[in-house]
Amino acid sequence: xxxxxxxxxxxxxxxxxxxxxxxxxxxxxxxxxxxxxxxxxxxxxxxxxxxxxxxxxxxxxxxxxxxxxxxxxxxxxxxxxxxxxxxxxxxxxxxxxxxxxxxxxxxxxxxxxxxxxxxxxxxxxxxxxxxxxxxx
Length: 136
Hints:
Largest sheet: 6 strands, antiparallel, barrel
Shape: elongated
Strand order of the largest sheet: 1-2-3-9-8-10
CATH class: Mainly Beta
Radius of gyration: 18 Å
Number of helices: 1
Number of strands: 10
Mean pLDDT: 83
Strand content: over 45%
CATH topology: Lipocalin
Distance between the termini: 50 Å
């Protein structure tokens, strides 16, 4: 029992240390905050010519006529082209997120679209929703 606790503590410490290293490594990363055209807040982490969507919410309309408010986060890094433009698609277990736009030193703007299909639920999708976030 004691051995299990020690191993668990070492693993937990390793996870905490790796998170601290990730934060130290991302010291040059900046959080851009803004809103979507639907009025929901959006956060984007920007580092050099790359960014990662941290969090946003979007309204979806479903095929059965219902509506769904979806909160999305935990995206992979996307690299912008030299002129700042970007286009990417990222996929989760039940959802797909497509986004495109332009990244500048002052902010990021673009449009995104989300589709979601739960196992027993209807197919839901958003329209292309504009977003804008700045590094204040």
